[in-house]
Amino acid sequence: MDNEIIYNEIGKLIKKERKEKGITQEKLAELTSYSLSFIANIESNTHQSFSLHTLYNIANALNTSIHNLIPDKPITKKEYQLYCSNCKYTVSIPKELGKLTEDITTITKELTFTCPNCEKKSLKIKQ
Ligand SMILES: [Zn+2]
Is residue 114 part of a domain? Predict the structure, then answer.
């Protein structure tokens, strides 16, 4: 399993759990004594890595089990990814859509998209 992907998947689960509990990122940072930027990085697709101990602390702060913050099925590495050269935001594209994207790229070569994270037009296909 790709290390970067597992952190992104856990980050998504932390974000989901935090929102369900009605806790802001600021509050979670306060409860865990981690910095707000660290919490924000964990929840976004920045491949922020962290220790098991950190995950345990976050689970405690969210008053949930650590099991709820770990993906319950294997994650397969997607073939295509969009990568933002400005903020390092990464998003995976399903294989089928990836092939389509490849075809479009072949025609247009320099295809860039607006990044949903930093809103700069610097999101490109990474293969
Ligand atoms: Zn960006």
Answer: yes
Give a yes or no: residue 75 inside a domain.
Answer: no
Whether residue 88 is found in the same domain as residue 57: no
The CA 31 to ligand 1 mean position distance, Å, reads 28
Q: Is the dihedral of CA 110, 122, 19, 80 positive or negative?
A: positive
Q: What is the pLDDT of residue 110?
A: 72
Going 10 to 100 to 123 to 127, the CA torsion angle's sign is: positive
Question: Ligand 1: distance of its center to the CA of 60 in Å?
Answer: 31
Range of the domain at 64: 3-69
Could you tell me the pLDDT band of residue 124, with boundaries at 50, 70 and 90?
Answer: confident
Tell how far the Cα of 119 is from the centroid of ligand 1, in angstroms: 6
Instruction: Report how far ligand 1's centroid is from the alpha carbon of 126 (Å).
Output: 14
Instruction: For the chain, give the percent of residues with pLDDT over 90.
Output: 53
